[in-house]
C-alpha cells in the first residue's frame, strides 16, 4: 500500500509539473501586463514597471524563476493587488471556497445516494417518479439560474437568508444549495441505475433466499455494490463543484478563490491564474487519489496489495 | 532661502494669493438618522492603499476619504482647503508655496511638510514604479529623478520648516492646484512607510491616515472594508457619518437585490437597469469626464487632407440615436471633444463656450453631399474602410451602429474589427486602422487633459490629424499664456473650435454614471475625474 501511495504521489508531482509548464507558456501567449494605466504611460515608464515584475527577462528565464519559486511556495506577485504575494492571496481566500466545496459535496452526495437508493427500491412507484423528476431538474437547471432564483425568493421576497456577502453559517446556505444541486442530481441518478441493476442480480436473490431481512440485503449487499461506480463519479463531481464555484462565488459575493479566478482572467493577472490552476489541479488529483483508496475500502476485490498469502 | 526669493519676487510683481474659504458643512433642516452608517458598493477589490501605487478608482476613492493632500477638490471642481490652509503662486507661475495647518496622523504624529517631501519623492523615484508618477511632469527635475538619473532630493519640493511646502515647477501649470489633490501627491509618514517596507498599506492595519476617515477590516484581499470617522482629523466636526461600509459585489443582479432589500444604499445601474429605473426619484445621472470619439487615420490615404470625407463621416452618424437607443445606458450626446462639466470659467462650461454646431451635427443629406465631394477629390468611386473598436458590449454596439450609419454613404462599405483593449491600443498607436473608436478619461478637471492629446506629435493623436493653429493654441495655453487665466481659456476654446470645425475627430458619446441612491443619503460628492466619491460631508436623514 505504501509503495503504491508513493508511486501515486510521484505521478501526482509529475502531472503537476506538466500542468505548471503548459499553463505558464499558454499564459505567456496572452497579452497580459501589470500595467494598469498603459494608455497614459510612456514606453520608458512601462519598461521600468515591467522590470519591477521581472517581465523584461527572456521567457525561459522567467520560467525557471517561476518553477523555482513554486517549489518554494512562492507564486509571484499579483498584478491586481500591488505588492500582495499570490500565496497570501490564495491562503487568505481559500477558506470560504473549501468550506463551500465540502458542504456542497456532502449535501450533494449523501442525500443523492439516499434518494437514488430510495428510487430504486420503490421502482416504478410515485416515489421513484418524484425522485427522478427532482434529479432531472437538478441536472437541467444551471447552478447560476438556481442561485438567482434562491436569492430572489428566499432572500429578497421571504427575507429568510442573506442574499449575498459572507460572515457566518447563514451566508453559506444558499450558495451551498446552488452548488450542491447538480452533484445531488448526478449521484441520485447514478445510484438509482446501479441499484436497480444490483437488485436484479443473482446474489441478491440468493441473499433474500437465505432469509436475510429486506433492509439487511439492501444495506449489506445492494447498496455497497452499487456504490463502487458512484465513487467513480466523485472526481468529476469535484471538478463540477470547483468550476461551479467560480460563478457561484461571484453571484453571492463570496471572498473565495473561484471569484478571484474569474477576475484574474479578465485582467490577465497571470501569476494568480497560474497559482489558482495549480491549486485546483492539486485538489483534483488529491480527490482522485482518495477515491482510488476508497475503492479498496468498499470493494476488497480492488485492493492494491491484497492479503492473498 | 528659495522660499524667501520667491516671496521677494512675488512682492515686486504682485503675488497672486488665493485664500481658500473654509467650506463649512451646510446646516440642514433634515433631521439626522440615529445610525450614521452608509453602505456602499465597489465592483472590484481594493488592490492597494499605498498612495504611490494606487491606479484604480476603488483605491482612489478609499484614499481620498482616509487621506488628504494639500488641497481637496470639492463639488463642481471647486477647491477646498486640505492640509494646506492657503497657498501662493509666484508671478511666473513656477513657485507654489503652501502653508500647512497643524493637523495629525491617526497615530498622533503631526502632519508636517516633511511628510509631503517624503511622499512625493517616494512616488517619483524609480524603485517605487508608480503608474501615476507622470502627473508630476511639470515638477522640476521630475523626469531625471523618475529615470533614476538624479537623486530624489533634487525633485522640486522643499520643506521650509515644519509647516510650509515650497514646490518648484519647471514650467507654469495653472491646474497644478487640482493635481495636488490626487493620491499620488498625498503626504506619507516616513516612519510608518519604512516600518512596514513592502507591506506598507497592504492591509488596513499597516497604514496611517490623515483624512476624514480611517480604514478598518481590510486584510489585503477580502471583499469588505470600513471607513470609520477619524477623530484626529482637523475638521472632524464636519464629518457626520460614523462609518462607510464597503462591500464588493461583482454581479449586477446581486447588487440590485441587495439594493432593493436595503442592505446597500446605492446601485450603479447597467443598461437594462437604467431603462427600468430611469424615471425613479432615486436615479441620479452624472457626467463622467470621459468622451468616446472616432479617429480617422490621416497618416496617408483617404482621410488625409480630405475635410469633406471627415465631415461626411461626422454628419452621417446620428449621435442622439447612438446614446438614446443603442447604448441606452444614460450616455449623453457630446457637445464636442472636451466633456461637459469637466472645466468651467465662472459659470460658463467649457463645452458650451467652445461649441461648434457642425462638429457633432447629424445631417444625412449634407453628409452625402460631402461624401460625393470627398470621393471626387480622391478620384475614387467606391471605398471600403475598416472600423476598429473594443470587444466590450458597448464597443460592439457602437461599431455595429456606426457601420449601419456609414454604409448609407454612397459607395462606402464599412467592415468592423472588435478586438481586446490592449490590441486596440497597440494597433491604433501603430496606425493599423482606417477608423478607430477611442476613449479618454481626464485625470484632472481642466480642458488641457483632452486638448493636449491632439497636437501634431502627440502619441495619443492616433489618427495624426495635424493643424498648426491648433498646435499654436495648445502651446500658448501651456506656455506663454499659462499664467493668464483668460488668455489660456481662450486658447483652449479656440483649439477646441478648430478641431471641431476641421473634424479632427468625431465625438460619439460622453459617458455618464447613472446611480440609484436611497433618498435618505445626502451630501455624497461625486467627482468626474480621479477619486470618485467623497463622504466627508455626507449624512443620512431619517
Automatic annotation (TrEMBL), chain A:
Gene3D superfamilies reported for this sequence? MetI-like (1.10.3720.10)
Q: Where are the transmembrane segments?
A: 9-27, 98-121, 133-154, 166-185, 227-252, 272-298
**Which top-level group of life is the source organism from?**
Bacteria
Chief place of localization? membrane
Q: Which organism is it from?
A: Secundilactobacillus angelensis
User: Which PANTHER family does this chain map to?
Assistant: DIPEPTIDE TRANSPORT SYSTEM PERMEASE PROTEIN DPPB-RELATED
| Localization (cell) | Cell membrane
Membrane topology per the record? Multi-pass membrane protein
Q: What is this protein called?
A: ABC transporter permease
Instruction: Tell me which InterPro entries the record gives.
Output: BPD_transp_1_N, MetI-like, MetI-like_sf
CDD domains in alphabetical order: TM_PBP2
UniProtKB/TrEMBL annotation, chain B:
**Residue ranges annotated for the Solute-binding protein family domain, each copy included:** 78-460
Q: What is its main location?
A: other
> What is the residue range of the signal peptide feature?
1-21
CDD domains given for it? PBP2_OppA
From the Swiss-Prot or TrEMBL record, state where the protein is found.
Cell envelope
Q: Which InterPro entries match?
A: Peptide/Ni-bd, SBP_5, SBP_5_dom
Q: Name one Pfam family in it.
A: SBP_bac_5
Which keywords does UniProt give here? Signal, Transport
Q: Which domain of life is it from?
A: Bacteria
> To which protein family does this belong?
Belongs to the bacterial solute-binding protein 5 family.
- What is the name listed in the Swiss-Prot or TrEMBL entry for this protein? Peptide ABC transporter substrate-binding protein
Organism equals Secundilactobacillus angelensis
